[in-house]
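Record GNAT family N-acetyltransferase, 154 aa.
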Amino acid sequence: MDTTIRRATPDDLDAAAALFDAYRRFYAQEGDLQRARDFLQERMQRGESVLLLAERDGRLAGFTQLYPMFSSVRTARTWILNDLYVDASARRSGVARALLDAAAQFARAQGAVGISLETTRDNAPARALYRAAGWNEDETQWYSLAFTPGTATP
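=>
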């Protein structure tokens, strides 16, 4: 069965939202299909992300979402592959690899100097996939500072 990758359009919102909601639930978030749809629709309308969809046998099997960034040091555009999800029924069939390759191809075509992603250290299957796809595991360490929406920091 072949996998086809294409950029999402507004016509894909309902089907993509179902996958996006499943992705969020995978990461222990409350299921909320309308919230997932609204989030994707807003990103599309504002041009804030690129959503690539994987199709197999006429139905969506996975997606990746890319966000544009810039490197001040390199004075150029980069992309962050922020989300990658494959439906359970399509896992271990090459869909994730096809999405990774399509994301890299898209970034190159946009003139970017690189693309990056982050995953947890204990996600061995994903890390093995990224390495097999030619991604380098950097020696840098990401840090984060989380905020609760609607609260002010003193």
